[in-house]
Amino acid sequence: MIIVLLGPPGAGKGTQCKRIIEKYNLTHLSSGDILRKERSDGSELGKKAQSFMDSGQLVPDDVIISMMVSAINASDGGCVLDGFPRTTVQAVELDKALDSENKKIDAIVNLQIEDAVIENRLTGRRSCPACGEVYHLETLKPKKDGFCDKCSDQELVQRPDDKPEVVKNRLVTYHAQTAAVVGYYKKSGYKIFNVNADNEIDKITAEVFSMLDGLVAV
Ligand code: AMP
């Protein structure tokens, strides 16, 4: 099964993906996470992506497409795509790549949320550089201020692209380029499952699961 999870940065795609992969035994393929790993490994790809990521712009399509197509082909039992495709060029190339492998997208979930809610979510987000656990300054505080609950002496950090000026750029980029991906899928005849992402995390999960359960049962 291949699931595409769409939505602006900060809509909660990562959180929902973790739950989806556990329940349906899929691989989580987050283009942002893969790029961050490439950067921390100091790879050529990571170096190419660095300046785009830090300014909230999209990394060029050719770089992302080859990276994600390889990752998809390596994920045998199916995957959830998180943060990809983000442009219509990426969506078209994804369709072509899947077609050549006799695969197809089984479900498209679109998490919808207002910009103002996202700005608060992202600028308040902090994460543990060791284990990746995510916190929020107001809504998901760690037990000890500024430190990870799981890795006790590990200080939490703010992602460079969660700084307020970069968040604004990421949203501008989203509206300018990524929103068109939904239009592409509608025009291509895909059914898009819209979910209100300004809701309790468990309620969003329940809605997504009930749709996916329907697919699995078919
Ligand atoms: P994310 O964690 O998904 O918000 O991604 C962080 C950053 O990685 C984005 O702001 C982009 O610079 C880059 N990125 C992630 N996915 C893509 C993609 N599909 N296309 C282009 N750039 C991407």
Please summarize what this structure is.
The protein is α/β, with parallel strands linked by helices and 218 residues long. It has eight helices and seven strands. The protein has one domain (2-114, 165-217): Rossmann fold.
Shape: globular
Rg estimate, integer Å: 17 Å
CATH level 4 superfamily: P-loop containing nucleotide triphosphate hydrolases
What's the count of strands? 7
Gross CATH architecture? 3-Layer(aba) Sandwich
**Count the helices. How many?**
8
Present as ligands are:
adenosine monophosphate
The helix/strand series, from N terminus to C terminus, equals EHEHHHEHEHEEHEH
Averaged pLDDT = 93
Helix content: 40-55%
Task: Walk across the major sheet and give the strand order.
Answer: 2-3-1-4-7
Distance between the termini: 12 Å
Low-confidence stretches: none
**CATH fold category name:** Rossmann fold
Alpha-beta classification: alpha/beta
Largest sheet: 5 strands, parallel
Total separate domains:
1
Q: Report the portion of residues in β strands.
A: 5-15%
CATH C-level label: Alpha Beta
Give an overview in words.
The longest helix has 24 residues. The chain is α/β, with parallel strands linked by helices. The protein contains eight helices and seven strands. It is globular. A hairpin with a 6-residue loop joins strand 5 and strand 6. The protein starts with a strand and ends with a helix. The protein has a single domain, classed as Rossmann fold (3-Layer(aba) Sandwich). A five-stranded parallel sheet has the order 2-3-1-4-7, sandwiched between helices. A two-stranded antiparallel ribbon has the order 5-6. Bound molecules: adenosine monophosphate. Adenosine monophosphate (AMP) binds next to helix 2 and helix 3.
